Amino acid sequence: MRVAVFIFVILCVHAGNVYSKPSCGYPLTEWCRTQEIARECGVEKYCLERNATRPNRAESSVEVGLYYESLCPGCRQFLTQQLFPTWVMLGDIMNVQLVPYGNAQESFDGKKYKFTCQHGEEECLGNMIEACVLNMTGSAAFPIIFCMESAADVLKAAQPCVEIYASSASWGSIMDCVKGDVGNKLMHDNAVRTKALNPPHKYVPWVTVNGGHTDEIEQKATSALFNLVCSLYKGPKPAACTGAKQSVDHRTSFC
């Protein structure tokens, strides 16, 4: 199912344009949620086979964390070219944690937290939107964020990306989160998580694997994440891992 999500997002984001929802009216992330939805979307047979054969690998999943900024070019490159495609292919054996904050600075005026971002106010808004998306849209969050980060304009893409992949979460509710206390607390929580990194982050994208970070992990993750996840997974290897290795070096830049 994640392959279908990936293909559809690519079709939806082309030269910064975002197109309409699937004809069945449900976002791709929901197609296999119930038999009724699967039937309406014409994928009932696929979903039945997928649910019957999908192994439970949760206990030994590889944990990949990304500490990033919404407008950092290197972060966008890694998320769209490495992290999301790897999750599409290996999502059954990996969990992804996204923490939009990066090199931002936080202050407190006695009532609420204030944030200053490396790439300006627009990046602070992008970070906040993505934090609220992660909090409010469940399994649709990663496709939404990929959709945004793949677009020519991250902020202009936000609303149509949400409307395509999380029709149950209105854009108004996302912006209520962004402008209100909930979004402020979510961004503060991301600041706390980022400041708690050990070793402390020096740049973004900052990648952790199973909670840890080293220069070697960063190099392997940003050049060939697919291979790294396959090599670290301790359970029976999924079919994607037993085929030819993906050896493309994307050489991610940093902020």
TrEMBL record:
Q: Might you give the EC number(s) for this enzyme?
A: 1.8.-.-
Going by the UniProt record, its keywords in alphabetical order are:
Disulfide bond, Glycoprotein, Immunity, Lysosome, Oxidoreductase, Redox-active center, Secreted, Signal
Family label = Belongs to the GILT family.
- For this entry, the protein name equals Gamma-interferon-inducible lysosomal thiol reductase
Subunit annotation: Dimer; disulfide-linked.
Q: Name one GO cellular component term.
A: extracellular region
Is Transmembrane found in the keyword set? no
GO molecular function terms here?
A: oxidoreductase activity, acting on a sulfur group of donors, disulfide as acceptor
* Signal peptide range: 1-20
Domain Saposin A-type: start-end pairs: 17-57
Tell me where on the tree of life, at the top rank, the source sits. Eukaryota
Q: State the PROSITE patterns in the record.
A: SAP_A (PS51110)
Broadest EC class?
oxidoreductase
Record localization: Secreted; Lysosome
Q: What does this protein do?
A: Lysosomal thiol reductase that can reduce protein disulfide bonds. May facilitate the complete unfolding of proteins destined for lysosomal degradation. Plays an important role in antigen processing. Facilitates the generation of MHC class II-restricted epitodes from disulfide bond-containing antigen by the endocytic reduction of disulfide bonds. Also facilitates MHC class I-restricted recognition of exogenous antigens containing disulfide bonds by CD8+ T-cells or crosspresentation. Lysosomal thiol reductase that can reduce protein disulfide bonds. Facilitates the complete unfolding of proteins destined for lysosomal degradation. Plays an important role in antigen processing.
Question: PANTHER family of this UniProt entry?
Answer: GAMMA-INTERFERON INDUCIBLE LYSOSOMAL THIOL REDUCTASE GILT, GAMMA-INTERFERON-INDUCIBLE LYSOSOMAL THIOL REDUCTASE
The Gene Ontology biological process terms listed for this entry are: immune system process
Matching entries from InterPro entries are given as: Interferon-induced_GILT, SAP_A
